[in-house]
Amino acid sequence: MSSVLRHPLAAVAATTGLTLPWIYLWATGSAESLPTLWVVAISGIAVLGASFLLAWGAETAEKDVPRAFAIAVLAVLAVAPEYAVDALYAWTAGANVGTPRGAEAANLAVANMTGANRILIGLGWSGIALFTIYRAQSASDPAVESRSGLLANVVHLDRDISTEITFLLAATAYAFLVPLRDGIGILDTVVLVGIYLLYIAVIVRGDVEEHEQQVGVPAYFHRYPRGGRVAVVLTLFVYSGAMIYTAVHPFAHGLELLGTELGIPAFFMIQWIAPLASESPELIVVAYLVNKARSTAGFNALISSKLNQWTLLIGTLAVVYSIAAGEVGHLPFDFKQSAEIWITAAQSFFALAVLVNFTISAREAVALLVLFVSQVAIEFLLIRDLVSLPFGIGTIEVLLGYTVVYLVLGTVLFVARRDGLRELLDRTAHTAQDAFGSGQTQAERAD
User: pLDDT tens digit string along 25-56?
Assistant: First the structure.
């Protein structure tokens, strides 16, 4: 009996079992009759189980496709709930053009998008870096280097992630221009989606690397013949993706209702609590990878997630809005949402400056975390009229002030690490040349 319980398929069965209560509620439509807390708990557990299935699918896929591509697929599926939530607001805005409801929904679409992106860096990148360093104290992790000094330990990133960082830097630079027009339009779709498609075209042409030695469930599936592995990967991806898609909406909505009961403003809930719920699958997946001492794969997944959110998520809003409106149009937003986009782009700029030398220290992770948490906390206190700032400073001024701080810190780091930036761009250029059949291969350059 004990050997059966230790079998990898037993782990798959147990994890799948976490999703079954939600399947019953979803199939029977009985979730609406349950108390909000129960819906949040059952749907949240389903998201947890689906996240592990998703991670196992991605690790199994690494044997047959380029690792970067497997992680990109993982990232897209993990943030699919965020796409769905944002698309709902964009559709509502397009279906109610010229009405107060349409204007509110358009602003909520932008707020939800910027909140999700800032959570991914402010909590995701920083939290996983700190967890990786903490985890290395009890389990060996070759990616973590101990250094003397306060919060000086660093996590080394795989230099092959240079392609993702470069494309993310390009998308970040473009994002600063988005608020300068009359909304998010088809031009933004063409540019941002084009950046992502070019990125996929580069990484999908890469070689299948010698995959890391796996343990547990992925190691078991790696012993399957190739056809069996493909079937397993597709099944895990489709099933977990369906679970995440159907469960995250009630989970996020339930959290919003619980927050409202506690007196938290609805707009604040849409920007921060709902994205926190929809981002939970990928954060769980990355924490799982780090716990297996696969911090490199974990950070790759986080960076890839940020790239597809910062390109596909923004770029598709105009498409959804235009379809709902019945004509090509721009998703409009007010000046506060312009400030939200600028601070989100500035945070990304600073975070990329941190990673440009392929390391992130505990000190830098804390800086990302403190800047993010302090800005959200100040905004919440201002919204609730719990504090007042001098000189009539309000939420918009706070957003613009933090934008300047991020830009200054990022610029200082990029200047100090300009050699790392040159190496980053050079590696990306060679990767693109190899992918499209021009230039020397990496092996030839090594010779």
Answer: 999 988 888 888 888 889 888 877 887 787 78
Domain boundaries in the chain? Answer: 2-446
Cα distances (angstroms) measured from residue 438 to each of 36, 259, 424, 426: 57, 55, 19, 15
Please state the three-class secondary structure of the chain as a single string: CHHHHHCHHHHHHHHHHCCHHHHHHHHHCCHHHCCHHHHHHHHHHHHHHHHHHHHHHHHHHCCCCCHHHHHHHHHHHHCHHHHHHHHHHHHHHHHCCCCHHHHHHHHHHHHHHHHHHHHHHHHHHHHHHHHHHHHCCCCCCCCEECCCCCCCCEEECCHHHHHHHHHHHHHHHHHCCHHHCCCECHHHHHHHHHHHHHHHHHHCCCCCCCCCCCCHHHHHHHCCCHHHHHHHHHHHHHHHHHHHHHHHHHHHHHHHHHHHHCCCCHHHHHHHHHHHHHHHHHHHHHHHHHHCCCHHHHHHHHHHHHHHHHHHHHHHHHHHHHHHHCCCCCECCCHHHHHHHHHHHHHHHHHHHHHCCCEEEHHHHHHHHHHHHHHHHHHHHHHCCCCCCHHHCCHHHHHHHHHHHHHHHHHHHHHHCHHHHHHHHHHHHHHHHHHCCCCCCHHHHHC
What's the pTM? 0.80
372 Cα distance to chain centroid:
15
Tens digit of pLDDT for each residue in 57-78? 877 877 776 666 666 666 666 5
Q: Please give the pLDDT value at position 75.
A: 60
Structure tokens at 330: 């721009």
CATH architecture of residue range(s) 2-446 = Up-down Bundle (1.20)
